[in-house]
Amino acid sequence: MKKSLATIGVLAAAAIALSGCTDSAAPSNSPTGDAGPEELTTVRVAALPIAETGALWAAMEEGIFEEHGLEIEVVPAQGGANAIPALLSGDIQFAIGQPFGPIRADLQDLGVVIVGNYANSLADGTDVNAVVALGDSGIARPADLAGKKVSVNTLGAAGDLTIRKAVQDDGGDPSTIEFVEVAFPDVPAQLEAGTMDAAWAPDPFRGMILGAGGVSVVAPYQATIPGLTVLTSITTQALLDEDPDLVAAYSAAMAEALEWASDNEDAVRAAIATNLEIPEEAAAGITLPTFTWDLGDAGIEDLGALAVEFEYIETAPDYDRLIQQQ
What we know:
Shape: globular
Oligomer: single chain
Number of helices: 15
Low-confidence stretches: 1-30, 32-37
Number of strands: 11
Structural class: alpha/beta
Strand order of the largest sheet: 2-1-3-10-4-11
Helix content: 40-55%
Distance between the termini: 47 Å
Order of helices and strands: HEHHEHEHEEEHEHEHEHEHHHHEHH
Strand content: 15-25%
């Protein structure tokens, strides 16, 4: 088990640098719906090197963004909150990440806006992420996480918040959990090395651990806010104001891309296998989320209420300002 997890973890980490980046074309002033290659506008988008990004990678390969006059350059990121400084500096134009970073940014009046959804978790069945542990850890249910060290990819966000709620609902003391920040690709090796007792992870990393004899402890989104958005599409109010045509073109392209991805799972899985450098049979077993641009059932306000309850934030953000469906 040790050899398999460590080896896979190293390969997955190495794949970050290769996850979906494209060569940039010289940007034009504005995108068009039928632009030729020389007219494409390059857009930099931060995204995590996880299975959910397969929809973006596959849609890029399909040429959907080019049809909207855009060439996408994917910038690997660790989480939505980590991408916000790059958004504010203009280094990237959009990010695909958890909504908690934008929630915090709105409370600081930083001008960060959620313009669309990207993927929702699953309300029942096997969900798209879970807290996992090694088979001999003795951790079998949420309450067992009390007093343990648990990794998440970004501290103070939806991962550890929903884990705390799940542990509390199972009779455990969530205040005794020690959360540590570990990038998803590092989870298999770090879990086995004993740097943490359990880890919150999406596929393919969850699947690697379970396939090597690990256990699934709880799907925290499903246990607390079933169907909660996994990833949202984020930009800045400044870009909305200064280049509304670009935001409109990107939004239309993403809406089409996510609808197409929902109907073309095989293409999405092929893109996952290629960009994460995992076997096709491993990609075939990954649980995919519900890809959607619609924020209607995203559960962001429920997440904000939970954050206030657990004192992650003092008050709810201005949702009319934060959420601007395009």
